[in-house]
Write a structure and sequence with these properties.
It is a single chain. The chain is of the alpha+beta class and 423 residues long. Helices cover 49% and strands 12% of the residues. The protein is built from 15 helices and twelve strands. Strand 10 and strand 11 (403-405) form a beta hairpin. Helix 6 packs across helix 15 (366-383). The chain is globular, with a radius of gyration of 21 Å. The termini are far apart. Bound molecules: protoporphyrin IX containing FE. Protoporphyrin IX containing FE is lined by residues 45, 62-63, 74, 81, 124, 223-224, 227-228, 231-232, 235, 290-291, 294, 355-357, 361, 363-365, 368-369. Protoporphyrin IX containing FE (HEM) binds next to helix 11 and helix 15.
Amino acid sequence: MAFFFGEALRLGTAYRVRVLGRAFTVLSGAAVNIMMATDADAFSAWNSWLPIIRDFGGRQVLTMMEGADHARLRKLMRGTFARETVTANVPAIIGMTLDALAPYADGQPIPTVYTMQKLIATELGLLTNGRTPDDYFDDIMQFWQTQLDVYVAPRKSGKSLETPAFLRAKARADEFARQVVDRRRAIPRDQRDPDNFIDNLLTAHEDDPNLVTEREIVFNALVPYFAGIDTAANTIAFLLAELLRNPAILAQCRAEADSAFAAGIPNAGALRNMDVLHRALMETLRLYPIAGTLPRTAAKDFEIGGYPIRKGDPLLIATCAPHFDPQYYRDPHRFDPDRFLPERAEHKTRGVYAPYGAGIHTCLGASIADAQIALTAATILHSVDFTFADPSYQLKSEFTPGMSPKNLKLTITRWRNRIALPS
Ligand code: HEM
């Protein structure tokens, strides 16, 4: 991503590259992000996700759909991914976070990204369906990451999809998703929850099997994990690492977390009041955009910034390249949450802040992710003091194929507060 962003700033709106034998055009800049939002017909995500859903026995999934069907499906899924889903489950999320920290209370190094991935998956299981993945977690991760490595990155050959280990992980992920869907199917139609996306998809399938098939409903049961685990977990990991590198900001965030917990379990208002933590999260999403480049195909001929693009051209939209452009962000490589203060508001120029994407496919989980990350981080900040396990640790990103803090290991140095959870 650093390469794509750097070249975008050097070369401008459009340039061609060849990576691993594939040639494509990289588009970037505020005007491109605005075009994603205003001229959705120009970009198609169909080819990017087709092999994955086809392998699963389906035809289409939200991330690749367009037009009225996409809008319909998005509406059916929206309720589950609202901020309120988090605020209605605050004690449970705090409990899950404390459970994730507990094995490391004695100071042994925490494999931070893996621990956060597992925690986010557990939280998402509760939030989206009341069913946590538990010992299916590693299978879901292996199933998804291998497919990203083969189809999206692409940095592995198709042979990775034939190994016994992958096939077993795929079968187990499928089994988990079928259990989730079967449990919802057992609920009579008139008692379905209008805010549960599986319930809504089951009803939609009964009324119009063409919109979403049985197999696609099963795939959708895995979508929160596919879309949410790596993105939210790596964002928390980068956030904690940046706070350690910036002690004054860490102290401010910790004071906010302490005050949110001062009267017991925080309510929605107390969580919203954590202003510095919220800006630190926005800054983490700016500096470390986990999904900062998005694959597309040109869906028609068009011109942008004087460059002709032909229908069918493979594109990579570097949506987050403007995050590093000094014309918008002062000292753009510095971690500086104050850039989001109203008097600076550097992100307010249209098209220059896009950690959750741009256009019709903008992240449906942005609200749940923001609330979930803030609550999880606040629980950690309030409960423990922590440091880098290796005092000489240098924060570096690695391509995974999202973005991940390389070899990050944190250590708990002291338990600060014990949170009393309702029984
Ligand atoms: C920090 C956390 C997250 C980041 C940075 C992130 C980023 C993104 C981005 C960039 C896209 C657009 C992809 C594209 O246009 O090709 C996207 C789409 C999506 N995200 Fe997220 N995401 C996060 C968390 C989540 C979570 C927690 C969920 C669900 C529980 C979720 C659900 C979705 C869905 C369903 C879409 C597809 C929307 C559509 O195609 O209409 N995301 N996300």
